């Protein structure tokens, strides 16, 4: 099963701060193996998953794959957002579903289930403002084939208070830049509509783009496109390095024999550039990058291909490949100490730069991992 597939996954808060924020309630709710997993953990992560009984959920787990808490989801999830101010997390539905579940990662308790606005569906990604007062979610205005960022007021029980245009379609991942003011958005360029499920309706006329938007006003600050010959190279996933460059991973919708480059970087001022990976390395990605993550110090970039069964780590400054790891059906990536944690649709949890044994969980991990603490 393809991972049921990250981003700038830098740890969001220290584990001791997570425990302090959780207070006695968290400790008291954990028993047996889950309490032991938390006590032993150096870091905590969250990912949507499919559970042993076939139902869907979102699990908080330790770096060795042991489950600490879990919330049920009504259908398949995609990615997770976390607010270290309120200690709440949100699991977003996979496109074209219309739910997002707000939950307490300490206990797995559902706080609220959100429904997308009429004529909209979630694209699976989101994030919180630095003060935790607002949540932003990537969404699709499907009748108009228009990408949006939906804005939600956390203090008003996650009321949807507005939206702004992303100046493209198929708005997939969006991240908040380190300045706290600018949103970077990957517009994949593929038209879809719930009436047609996940069918891609405009492959001949795709126009992917990377845009920078003012978080407060919604004003477009910059929009960068690939050259026309690469109009079928869908920009999907993002990470931000130590120099505040945005790295983007792509999925190619054209003939497989074309084998274009799949990874690049951008800034608002300088536009975007694809890096030149050697053809042999590129071939192992099978025209598909499923997740992108930056290391904790921002000096390395990891990319995964569940189609090719490969995870690669690159030097962000030299823009060159450092190492490669075969991970069957692997997609989820997050920074973990000096290295990266990777997960797969077959339940694998593996450290890519630690001398630690791989762990097998009884969950089928979805596409993305979020680091909650380290």
Quick overview of this protein structure:
The chain has 374 residues and is mainly β. The chain has helices at 15-29, 32-40, 279-283; strands at 44-50, 56-62, 67-73, 77-83, 88-93, 99-104, 109-115, 120-128, 134-141, 146-153, 159-165, 171-176, 182-187, 209-214, 220-225, 233-240, 246-252, 263-267, 271-274, 291-294, 300-305, 310-315, 320-326, 330-336, 339-344, 348-351, 359-360, 364-365, 370-373. The chain is built from 3 helices and 29 strands.
What does this molecule look like?
This protein is mainly beta and 374 residues long. Helices cover 8% and strands 47% of the residues. Strands 1, 2, 3, 28 and 29 form a 5-stranded antiparallel sheet that branches. Strands 4-5-6-7 form a 4-stranded antiparallel sheet, with no helix packed on it. Strands 8-9-10-11 form a 4-stranded antiparallel sheet, with no helix packed on it. Strand 26 (348-351) and strand 27 (359-360) form a beta hairpin. It is globular and about 45 Å long. It starts with 14 loop residues before the first helix and ends with a strand. The model is unreliable at 1-12 (pLDDT under 50).
